[in-house]
Amino acid sequence: xxxxxxxxxxxxxxxxxxxxxxxxGAAPLGRLLGAPVWLMVVSGVALLISGGIEIxxxxxxxxxxxxxxxxxxxxxxxxAALAGLLTAWRGxxxxxxxxxxxxxxxPLVFAALLVAADPVxxxxxx
Length: 126
What we know:
Keywords: Membrane, Transmembrane, Transmembrane helix
Low-confidence stretches: none
Mean pLDDT: 92
Number of domains: 1
Shape: elongated
Helix content: over 70%
Distance between the termini: 13 Å
């Protein structure tokens, strides 16, 4: 098992843990972030799906594909966090909703792109 594979599994595992936190703590986290409870739960479900797919596809997808998708996801995560912070600093109340909205949409896009990617050995070998 390569370091990249371990990293992909860890990334998926982190998403699963974050999902559990979002679902289990939907009400208090929603209050803290200023996001509705339903958004916290839906985000948790999206993260759970994405994390499970990410872990499940480690043997059948290229680590190059994983790396590209993780870089894109994490870059968007940083931008969404900055947008949420800027919104909050400027007195807006939607900062948490911006960040949780990203946490809802981006994992599903990540999972869909990973599922649609060519299997290892077909087009993008490690």
